[in-house]
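=== Structure Prediction Worksheet ===
Name of assembly: unnamed complex
Input type: mixed (protein and possibly other molecules)
Chain count: two
Listed entries:
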Amino acid sequence: MEFEAKLKDLESLIRQLEKGDQPLEKSLELYEKGVSMVKVAEKRLTEMQGKIEQLMADGTQKAL
Amino acid sequence: MQDALTVTQLVSMVRKDLETKYRTVTLLAEISSFRPWRSGHWYFDLKDENALIPGVMFKGFCSRVKFDVKDGLQVLVKGKVSVYAPQSKIQMIVEQMEPVGEGALALAFDQLKEKLEKEGLFDAARKKKIPFLPNKLGLVTSPQGAALQDMLRILKHRMPGVDVLLAPARVQGRGSAEELADALQRLEQSGECDVIIIGRGGGSLEDLWAFNEEVLARAIFACQTPVVSAVGHETDFTISDFVADLRCATPTHAAQIVVPDCQELLDRLSVSKQRLHKLAKALVVKAHLNLANLSKCLISPKAALLQVMQRLDMQAQRLEKSMLRRFQGAKERFQVAVAQLEALSPLKVLNRGFSAVYHAGKLVSRVAQVSVGDELDLRLSDGVAKVEVREKHGI
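=== Predicted Assembly ===
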């Protein structure tokens, strides 16, 4: 799924939780899901390499 | 033989005739093979569809020209026709040069634009969505250009983690459109990029011309990966701009559009995290409250026992009271009965001097019940006296 869609899912999950009309069991489930969504998203942003390479005419790649 | 002319004489005569006849000529032509020399003079060809005449503009006149002279430009020139004697070459000595409204390039642009538009290359429905956060970003531009450095700087600032794959290509000059198209195809074939930016920094219309060529337009259209065109030209659009999935006015702008700001996203996530933690705390508090409410409803066995005992005590007291009440009633009734009994008791009569007579244990109330000689018991108030019947008679 697209990063942006995930972010929106997370934020709507939190809004749902904040309404407070869920049973405790369900709230805890949502909370745990939210925490793991945050972790995945943070990982996606912080664990990227940032490689900069050049695509040569023969299709090989080398660092720029 | 003496009438014969030398070559120099002939050429000189022709030259004089021409220079006299075509002293001041105004000519509408397209510039081609433009060659500015180190001497400061300009050499070029002036042409239309069918004919060509070489032109020269000397240094003093060149400095008065206020625009960039380039091949393909449509110009209005003023000057005279002359002959370059060493080659008998007719040429035009230009003294003034003005650009003409829309030149040949502009016309070509309009024609190509119309053609591609008709073919549907610009259709909004065909445009692909630019991903929000690409894993790998393809760049097609000159490795030497400032545009590349600008884009890399922005990318590093906004999203340091994004991978970049550059397909180098010349961005101006003959053959550059083909090079750009080829670089784009190579990126596409690598299959690694989520989005491709193709572009260059600003320049004159002629500098940007590669981005107006059909070969590049078709390559962009054929690309399955979303393509962002970024030709540094704020006001005018290039053909590439029309075909691309997204048009940005500059490479810098394209880099800003194509990747989101990493810090902004991390901040957004951090807000989410805080909200979640707050919610977790609220959940714990709520759970405690629930527990407290529930425990209010629960009674410990000891308390229950105490309650039962208390109830027992109460019952016992009530029982005692009611027993007492009943006992009291019985006592009273007993006393009344005793009093009644006493009132009726024959003993009371005996106390007043009466006595009861018994014969053989039976109460005697009539004379007929006894015979003379019988022994009788005389019951008095404090004892019994034995007596004998001596006589009997009725009253």
